[in-house]
Amino acid sequence: RRCTPYLAVFWHRVLGDLRVISVSLFTTMSNAAAMSKDGIESVRGFTDETRFDRSRLKEVSAGDTEFELELLEMWKSNIIAKIPLIRSKLELKDQDDAVLYSHEIKGACANVGADGVRELCRQLEALAKVSDWDACIKLIPDLKTEFEQTMRVMEKDYGVESI
């Protein structure tokens, strides 16, 4: 299953057309209800080989290494900026923005192949949709850790400076 591309979500938001976003939010609502009682699924089991899908990045960049580096730098700065925003929206119990920001990060991760971070954002988005604020807040440290681990892999493979 493919995620809505980050740029598509961004442009729909800029144009004020939230129909595409609301359709994708509605279709994943049943996933949230199926989660465990505490709402947290394990993402353990991701390794350096599985947390970052290099083939996805190559597909998106059409094999242009310079463009890959540019995409990874943009992705990194986007995630660094969005994680604190998500946390603050969760603390304020702002469902709309918490869902939107986690969805945006999920899409950005799908575009560069950051599967571990994408999976955590998928869980975060589903939990925010059902207003499970405690479970959402518990996921933030895992999200930060997975992001840091993914950055270490990207630094090793592409020279992208780790945080």
Given helix and strand content, the structural type is mainly alpha
Count, helices? 7
Mean pLDDT: 79
Provide the helix percentage.
over 70%
| Strand proportion | under 5%
The N- to C-terminal Cα distance equals 30 Å
Tertiary shape: elongated
Order of helices and strands: HHHHHHH
Give me the Rg, rounded.
15 Å
Low-confidence runs (pLDDT<50, min 5 residues)? Answer: 1-42
What's the main sheet like?
none
Count of β-strands: 0
Main features:
7 helices; disordered N terminus; mainly alpha; elongated; 72% helix; 163 residues
Helices and strands in order, then pairings?
Elements: H1 6-14, H2 19-33, H3 54-61, H4 65-91, H5 95-112, H6 115-129, H7 133-158
Helix pairs in contact: 1-5, 2-6, 3-4, 4-5, 4-7, 5-6, 6-7
Short overview:
This protein has helices at residues 6-14, 19-33, 54-61, 65-91, 95-112, 115-129, 133-158. It is mainly alpha-helical and 163 residues long.
What can you tell me about this protein's structure?
This protein is elongated. Helix 1 runs antiparallel to helix 5, helix 2 packs across helix 6 and helix 3 packs across helix 4. By secondary structure, the chain is mainly alpha-helical. Helices cover 72% and strands 0% of the residues.
